[in-house]
Amino acid sequence: MQAIQDPPAAASSALTLAEELRALALASGADDAGLVSLDRPELAGERKHAEEALPGARALLAFCVRMNREPIRSPARSVANHEFHRAGEDVGLVGRRIVRALEERGLRALDPSLGFPMEMDRYPGRTWVIAHKTVAVAAGLGAMGIHRNVIHPRFGSFILLGTVVVAAEAEEKSRPLDFNPCVACKLCVAACPVGAISADGRFDFSACVTHNYREFMGGFTDWVENVAEAGSAAGYRSRVQDSESASMWQSLAFGPNYKAAYCLAVCPAGEDVITPFRDDRAEFLARVVRPLQAKEEPVYVMAGTDAEHVARRFPHKTVRRVGKVLRPTTVAGFLRSLPLAFQPGQAGDLRALVHFRFTGREAREATVRIEGGALTVDAGLAGRPDVTVTADSAAWLRFARGELGLLSALLTLRIRLRGSPRVFMRFGRCFPR
Q1: If you write DSSP's letter for every residue of 135-199 in order, what string do you get?
Q2: Residue 385 parent element (H or E)
Q3: Closest by alpha carbon to 102, among 11, 55, 165?
Q4: CA angle 317-322-328, nearest 5°?
Q5: CATH topology for 14-166?
Q6: CA atoms 27, 32, 37, 38: torsion sign
């Protein structure tokens, strides 16, 4: 590795340091890099977490590593996942090399992991230390596409991201892109097996995390509960197919495997990527998109969610209905999860204003509004509600996780409702349990 050069004693300017950091990242194996100050307004949400991880943090060095395109596009998902894992290891090596070089010259730095390991004591809240996508966009490494991946202007969606947190002031050279490389082709919409991406840009987080991340976190918890509830080997086999058990073992032994990530696979954006799509769209569709659409595979969905449309859209794919993935453990987490779990298709034409008053261990008030197929959550109570929910926080969390029946909670006054029961029932159907 090419080592970063020591500056003249007490003479390295902030601008020189910024240039040196980018050069160091490229010399360490990154394909692109950019430096941003933690003072940037768009990084306000990262400042606290960066400073907790590295007291004195002042700047973030974002970098990316290219992935090979054809493995990611392959219908053989073992091939795609092998590429994800190997490229992810490269990200870790690049970050480690940068930190080592900075440490050798007396600069404090650290590189939070690309994915795992994470701070699992915070689960299901923010388990990551740094939001790499947010930092990469601020550093000009790309812009967010409607598939919620960062699209690099040259390499397209075929990148993995890393960040080095640096305890040093450095004048910035990097700025966000003044354009979005996304070509609005909507191929990610067409390829997603669970309809997590809508043509209008809306994203169904719960559909994506339930299927694509089946063998991560919440999906793993659901699998463990199947084991616990089965009662016998025969009972387990009636719930879980042998191929699913083998797949879970593979993820535990060799690293969690994505079930799809088709949105990334079919994306044609980026200077190095787009030529085949521009030259012959029909051939691109036939070679890249349709093999993924035609793949016969299990698709994991929660019952009662919009993702169940897969049975009509892709009848050759096998729908596997699974348990709830997003299960809050705090009232704050419950309120954060509402926009992620909300099902616009189930809401239909519902217009509802719901006040929540939580008492007990987590006293909190919030207003939830559903209108036009969209949901917002605001702190405090505002407007004239259709329904007011007053609940002991611990009882409500048990109800939200499916551990406490509503009737029992109402009879014991741990949950009280005022207003329209019809609106409350329709509201509940927007968040299948």
Answers
A1: HHHHTTS-EE-TTSSEEBTTTBT-EEEEEEEESS---------SS-------HHHHH-TT--B-T
A2: none
A3: 165
A4: 135
A5: NADH Oxidase (3.40.109)
A6: negative
Per-residue pLDDT of the chain (433 residues; tens, 9 = 90+): 334 444 333 334 444 778 899 999 999 999 999 999 999 999 999 999 999 999 999 999 999 999 999 999 999 999 999 999 999 999 999 999 999 999 999 999 999 999 988 998 888 888 899 999 999 999 999 999 999 999 999 999 999 999 999 999 877 778 999 999 999 999 999 999 999 998 888 899 999 999 999 999 888 999 999 999 999 999 999 999 999 999 999 999 999 999 999 999 999 999 999 999 999 999 999 999 999 999 999 999 998 899 998 889 999 999 999 988 878 889 999 999 999 999 998 999 999 999 999 999 999 999 999 999 999 999 999 999 999 999 999 999 999 988 898 898 899 989 999 999 999 999 999 988 7
Q: pTM, whole model, 2 decimals?
A: 0.90
Tokens at residue 243, please? 């191929």
Residue 109: closest CA among 157, 67, 54? 54
Q: Looking up tokens 């219908």, which residue turns up?
A: 75
Domain limits of the chain?
14-166, 187-322, 331-429
What homologous superfamily is domain 331-429 in, according to CATH? SCP2 sterol-binding domain (3.30.1050.10)
**Within 10 A of 169 (CB to CB), how many other CB atoms are there?**
13
d(CA 300, CA 359): 36
Three-class SS of residue 301?
strand
Place of tokens 């329209």: 420
